[in-house]
Every structure is written in structure tokens, then in C-alpha cells.
Design a protein that fits this description.
By secondary structure, the chain is of the alpha+beta class. Helix content is 34%, strand content 25%.
Amino acid sequence: MAIPKEPRQLMINIMYLVLTALLALNVSAEIFNAFKVVDKGLVDSNKSLDESNNALPDVIRERSKKRKELEVYAEKIDPARTISKELSEYIDGITTFMIDQTGDKNGVEDAGDYVEVQGHEELRGKKNKDITTRFLVDEGKGAELKAKIEDARARFIALVDEDDRAKFEQEMALGIDDETWRHGKNKKNASWESFTFRQMPLAATLPMFSKFKNDAKATEAAFLNYLMGKVGGEEVVFDKYTVVSAPKKSYIIKGETYETEIFLSAASGGSSNTGISVRVNGSPVSVNNEGVAKWSAPAGSVGIKKYSADITVTNPVTGESDTYKKEFEFEVGERSVTVSPTKMNVFYIGVDNPVEVSAAGISSNDMNVSMSGAGGGTIKRASDGTFIVNVTQQTRNGEFAKVNVSAPGITVAKDFRVKRIPDPVPTLSGKVGGAIGNGELRAQQALIPTLEGFDFDARCSIVGFQI
């Protein structure tokens, strides 16, 4: 059995391609649903691997009885399974803790950590970024996880005969990509755990933890197959398969290209005599040496798009062929920009006018925001990601100050009126007029100018008055 190379990096790529473009903007419910679907697929794949891994040990032990020198391989079964089990239980402990801490915080994962949304059960803390950043990055749990994965990898390799270690190490799924984060532009990501988990919503980290477990179980399966080969067994062909589609993006923009990798959770590569053929929508797709077929389709229109994939597997022992089919879908969206004044649809002279600019499917780094039209306006980006507009001239009837937003594939202009700050109203003891008691009058220190109904931070002072 050949395990797809670098599945860990594939999952990280999927997460970051989606998150870097959308997390800083508006992450829709559909995106979180996509993470949920990915996680469910990985959980199902893990169950399939567990079934396979539970079936092999008895066969290996039975065949090792043929010769005395083969018994050493049977003795390696339990240590290998312990490595995988310990890592999986450790990862389960992390996920349970984070789910509970973003739920009812009663020390266990239970119904109180979930909420029903439109008839479906959802995590209460699925959007929570504090728990992932604080627990996994700041408190060091992510670094500990990295060390656990690297230790498990080293322990697996140590169980392999020295002459076979180089080949096994090259093909094993379990491991850490400790290089990509070093080349990132964000200086805050000074470690693997910061690059992987900082400011990640809880819902986005769960598929990653499921993938780490999948890597451990897949490596366990690869090691058991290695032992099977050592005791004289044929290359194992599993009798249960799961078709997996791993898209680079589950939500794409009109004009982009949808790309995905389609493979069996227990795939056979070029080194195996197991025959595999893949067809998408009835058309054949070539399979590489790792047992993976890559398929792409242009996104010509918006909406939900569906495709079907079927994989035919030939058992090298019996010569029989079985076909497994599954349907998948992805959503094509269209770029859009929204310019929203934080206060109202008017800019005022002499004060800072806050404006929010949001874009679906567009990175904030790709947006160019400027001012034009009447009003003598200027715009600058604030530290919190919003924008501040300052204007100097009041617009007349039919004139507008324009906020312009341009990005690849889209240009939008939003009109605003420009007004001066309304006249302040002098008040005494909070009153605009009417009678006031002698004692109350004596207690007042001054007339106070008030901008009634004005939401901006503007102050007025009285320089003189007549009685």
C-alpha cells in the first residue's frame, strides 16, 4: 500500500488558501460548513484505517510462526500500535479541552458545548480564535504537539530494519513541515505552532488535528504492511475504500479554476501491482506514482457545482475489479465590495469619519481605496483595518464625495454627502430654556454647548454671549 506523500502539507495548504483570503474579511457560514465537511471526511477515513489496522496483526503473528527468525517482526506489532494510539489519544485530549473551553467549561465534551442551528448541531465556539492562539501558541501546547509528532515519527522509524529505514522514512505520512513557516512574511509567526494555529478559528483547527491522527494511523498501516512483507505476505489490498476529494479551495471566485486531488484513503502507487483507474464525470484522469489523480475545472458561472468521481481497483491476488463512486460539490462565488460608513451616510467637516470597507473573495492587500469627487476628501487606513475620511468642503445639491475601491476584477465607487457640523445649542444644567431655580442656577459653573443628536467626537466652547 502506498500512502499519498505530504498529506499534512496538503491539509495546511487547504486551510491557508481559504483562511488567508477570508479570515481578515467576512467568513461566511458556508466556509465553516466546508471545514466541517473536510473534518467529517477525515474522521471517516480514520475509521476505515482503524478497521484495516485491526485486521492485520493476527495475520502477521500467524505467518511469523513459520520460522523462528520471523518472530521478531511479530513482536514489533504492539509497540507500533501503541505509538499510534498514544498520539491519537493525546490529540483527542487537546480537541476535547478546546471544545469544552469554548462551550460550557464543565471539564468534559458534552451537549453543552454544542448549539442547534437550523436543525444541525454546531460547535458553540467554532469561530473562537482566542483558545487556539492562547492554548496552542502562547501556552506552548502547540510546541508540545509538534514534539509529540516528531517523537512518534522517530519511534516508528526505529522499529524498521536499518537497511529499510531510508525508504520507509521517505514514504511515511507522519511528520512536521518545519520549513514553510520560516519563509513567511508575517514576523509574528516565529514558530511552527504560531504559523499553524495563531488566530485560527477552532473550526479550522479540528480538521488539522484529524489529519494528524490520519497521518499516525496511515503510518501504522504502512508499518503493518512492512511487517507483512517481512513475514512473507503478499502486498495487502484492503477490501474497503473511501474516495477522497481534497480541493485547494471549497469556495472559489468566478473566473478562477477549481482544483482538487482525488484519491482513495488507502491508495496503491506505482510500486504496487494493484491496478487503479480514476474517472471524473465519466472521463478518465491519469494517476501518478503516489496513487493520486489531479482534476481541474474552470469556474465559468456562479452557484453550486457538482461532479462525480469513480475509482476502479483491481485486486492483484484474485484479479477481480471493484468500482467505488462518490459525488462531490463546490461553490463558485463572485467578487463584491461593500463600503459602509460606521456612523451614517454623511461625512462631516472637521472630524474623523470612520468607514469600513469589506470585500468577499478579495484579500485586503489587493484592495486600493481612494477618494475623489467633491468635498476635498482624503482617506487613510487606521490601525484596526478600518479607514478614516477627512473632508474640507460642504457638497451642494447633486455633488458627492466618492470612496473608490479597486481590486483585481472589480471597481466600486460609493457616494457620500459632505456637511458641516450642526450648530451647538447652549444648555444650562442640561436645559435649553425655561425656568430654573435660584439654587440650581448658583450651582452652575458655565453654559455648556451641546451638539444634540451628533454621534461624532466633536467639542465646542463658548467664547461669548449676551443676556
